[in-house]
């Protein structure tokens, strides 16, 4: 019920709700439980305790005149009433509900985690505005509520410390700092920010506050950074893949700092600092050049060269982060309790590099490395997500083979481990969605695709992948929305995104666009030629379709892993079997289109 109330006006398939809440249960029992729950909700609705529950055409949802998500409604009420009003208690009650419902099912737990994060973020935005106001009583209450919800929020901690110092309670201000330090140490293995430490020092040296401006000025705005690959071609595809992995890892590490903000790829405003990375090779040796630039001035602040970044990356990147922090006068803690073992992390980075080449021999080595990583570090969620992802595409990298039930089960288990390890990981939800597609649980697939988009709505990989997932799930309206979104981010697209979009466009009936995108992506993936030939046939170019099918069969024959010869019928049969299509008529239409091309000979 909470899931429906939290998204008023949205309707979900009954099967999706059943799978979400009774994941892994017997289907008959889950269906009975669902119907019983609906009856109980209807009784509550009739007594006026709840809004009207509506079921129609196999879907369920709550009708509401106000269709804002519940976290937006709570934030609006808090903005009107202030932190001293009843809205704050409503927020506490909602967060408590999210906590007590944990454990219903793994997918529902992931949504609860997301809902809690969103509610805290929107609540905090209102409280931050109140803390920045001129009414000290209102600001103080907002800071107290902030610390209650998020004891690690140092902006609020500094506010309370200054307020107590100004009131002559330096000892209590120091106690507030000690509480913060203990919380950060216990839950984050971090130390307080330099600004908080400086405030503590000022209070300690001048308890009476006679030599300092106790209120202090406004919080310093966070500077913005972008972390990007240099606009230079790498020597090999393997280097290009490794460069992308290293840039992504550096961006993730810098994103942990609260002193600055990492800009998304599609940011409109230029970043204060641009960190550009370029991987180049000399013989067998690899070097990563890192330039830190001021885009507004067109100047390079400093450069650094990292030797052999594919080995001992954890140690080397920590030094790089410290240098960046020093350039910005930020103190970086050297504590490393939560760092993954360096050897394990190197293996994970190498596996990502191998996966990025989309080559069969690299895929085999990547799977071996990821099995080693998940065996040695079972709580390392990213490795489980990568392993599930590569298992989902093995049959595509091995033309002539099928996605076996054994591989499906293994991939699903690893994907579930990834989401359980980090429910806020976009990649984990995206991979789990694909696992559910292959398992035929398309409603759960759509749920996790949506989760991945909620967590990172600007990620082009999530957008392109979800567009294809929704197209496979026969939800072409949603697929088209996402196609439009991802095509609005052309500068951030990887080449293989074109193939995701080409297939999505074909399934949405955008045949000419699919033809154009396939033409740009020749050779990128083993499935390009099939979509290309089918799209050419549908736009009335049979001769071109026949020629493309011929070249496609020749391409696949060189990679063929099937038991029989790679003749056109065998290649078409394999190609059509690759995709988890919900609508059987779509699969048969795709097969018929390609067979009609083959019949032109």
* Count, helices: 27
Broad CATH class of the largest domain: Mainly Alpha
Strands side by side in the biggest sheet: 5-4-6-7-8
**Architecture per CATH nomenclature, i.e. the level-2 architecture of the largest domain:** Alpha Horseshoe
Percent helix, as a range, is 55-70%
Alpha carbon gap, first and last residue = 58 Å
Tell me, rounded to a whole number, the average pLDDT.
84
Assembly context of the chains: single chain
Pfam family, one: TPR_2
Protein name: Bacterial transcriptional activator domain protein
Keywords: Repeat, TPR repeat
TPR repeats: 426-459
Question: Explain this structure to me?
Answer:
The protein has helices at residues 2-6, 14-21, 27-46, 70-81, 86-100, 106-131, 136-149, 154-166, 170-187, 194-205, 237-254, 313-327, 342-355, 360-376, 381-392, 394-397, 405-421, 426-438, 442-455, 460-472, 476-486, 497-507, 511-520, 528-538, 542-557, 568-577, 584-598, and strands at 12-13, 53-56, 59-62, 223-229, 260-262, 273-282, 285-294, 299-307. Helix 4 (70-81) runs antiparallel to helix 5 and helix 19 (442-455) runs antiparallel to helix 20 (460-472). Residues 330-339 have low confidence and may be disordered. The termini are far apart. The chain is 61% helix and 8% strand. By secondary structure, it is α/β, with parallel strands linked by helices. The protein is built from 27 helices and 8 strands. The chain has 4 domains: 2-62, no CATH class; 223-336, Rossmann fold (3-Layer(aba) Sandwich); 340-457, Tetratricopeptide repeat domain (Serine Threonine Protein Phosphatase 5, Tetratricopeptide repeat, Alpha Horseshoe); 459-601, Alpha Horseshoe (Serine Threonine Protein Phosphatase 5, Tetratricopeptide repeat). The radius of gyration is 27 Å and the shape is globular. The strands form 2 sheets. A 5-stranded mixed sheet has the order 5-4-6-7-8, covered by helices on one side. Strands 1-3-2 form a 3-stranded antiparallel sheet. This is Bacterial transcriptional activator domain protein. InterPro entries: AfsR-DnrI-RedD_regulator (IPR051677), BTAD (IPR005158), TPR-like_helical_dom_sf (IPR011990), TPR_2 (IPR013105), TPR_rpt (IPR019734). TPR repeats lie at residues 426-459.
């Amino acid at each position: 019920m909470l899931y429906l109330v939290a998204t008023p006006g949205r309707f979900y398939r009954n099967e999706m709700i059943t799978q979400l809440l009774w994941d892994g249960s017997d289907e008959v029992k889950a269906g009975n439980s669902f119907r019983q729950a609906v009856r109980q909700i209807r009784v509550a609705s009739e007594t006026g305790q709840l809004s009207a529950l509506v079921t129609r055409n196999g879907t369920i949802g709550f009708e509401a005149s106000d269709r804002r998500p519940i976290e937006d409604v709570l934030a609006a009420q808090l903005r009107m009433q202030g932190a001293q009003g009843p809205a704050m208690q409503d927020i506490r009650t909602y967060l408590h509900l999210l906590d007590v419902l944990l454990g219903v099912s793994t997918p529902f737990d992931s949504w609860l985690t997301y809902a809690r994060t969103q509610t805290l973020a929107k609540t905090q935005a209102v409280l931050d505005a109140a803390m920045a106001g001129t009414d000290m009583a209102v600001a103080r209450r907002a800071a107290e509520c902030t610390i209650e919800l998020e004891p690690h929020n140092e902006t609020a901690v500094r506010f309370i410390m200054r307020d107590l110092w100004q009131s002559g309670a330096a000892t209590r201000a120091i106690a507030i700092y000690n509480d913060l330090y203990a919380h950060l140490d216990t839950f984050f293995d971090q130390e307080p920010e330099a600004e908080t430490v400086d405030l503590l020092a000022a209070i300690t040296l001048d308890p009476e506050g006679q030599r300092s401006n106790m209120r202090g000025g406004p919080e310093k705005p966070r500077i913005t950074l972008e972390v990007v690959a240099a606009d230079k071609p790498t020597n090999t595809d393997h280097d290009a893949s490794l460069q992308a992995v290293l840039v992504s890892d550096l961006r993730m590490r810098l994103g942990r700092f609260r002193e600055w903000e990492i800009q998304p790829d599609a940011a409109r405003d230029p970043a204060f600092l641009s960190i550009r990375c370029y991987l180049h090779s000399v013989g067998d040796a690899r070097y990563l050049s890192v330039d830190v630039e001021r885009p507004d001035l067109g100047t390079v602040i400093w450069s650094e060269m990292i030797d052999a970044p594919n080995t001992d990356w954890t140690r080397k990147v920590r030094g790089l982060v410290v240098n960046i922090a020093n350039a910005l006068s930020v103190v970086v803690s050297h504590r490393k309790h939560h760092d993954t073992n360096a050897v394990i992390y190197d293996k994970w980075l190498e596996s990502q590099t191998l996966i990025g080449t989309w080559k069969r021999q690299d895929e085999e080595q990547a799977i071996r490395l990821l099995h080693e990583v998940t065996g040695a570090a079972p709580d390392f969620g990213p490795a489980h997500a990568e392993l599930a992802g590569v298992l989902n595409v093995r049959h595509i990298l091995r033309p002539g083979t099928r996605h076996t039930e054994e591989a499906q089960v293994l991939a699903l288990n690893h994907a579930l481990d990834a989401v359980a390890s980090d429910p806020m990981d976009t990649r984990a939800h995206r991979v789990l969605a694909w696992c559910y597609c292959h398992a035929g649980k398309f409603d759960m697939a759509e749920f996790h695709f949506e989760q991945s988009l909620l967590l990172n709505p600007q990620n082009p990989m999530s957008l392109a992948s979800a567009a294809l997932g929704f197209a496979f799930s026969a939800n072409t309206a949603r697929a088209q929305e996402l196609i439009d979104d991802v095509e609005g981010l052309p500068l951030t697209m990887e080449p293989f995104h074109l193939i995701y979009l080409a297939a999505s466009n074909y399934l949405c009936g955008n045949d000419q666009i699919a033809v154009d995108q396939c033409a740009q992506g020749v050779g990128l993936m083993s499935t390009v030629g099939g979509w290309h030939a089918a799209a050419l046939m549908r736009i009335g170019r049979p001769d071109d379709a026949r020629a493309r099918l011929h070249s496609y069969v020749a391409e696949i024959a060189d990679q063929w892993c099937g038991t029989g010869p790679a003749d056109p019928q065998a290649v078409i049969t394999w190609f059509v079997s690759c995709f988890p299509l919900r609508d059987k008529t779509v699969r048969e239409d795709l097969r018929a289109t390609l067979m009609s091309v083959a019949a032109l000979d």
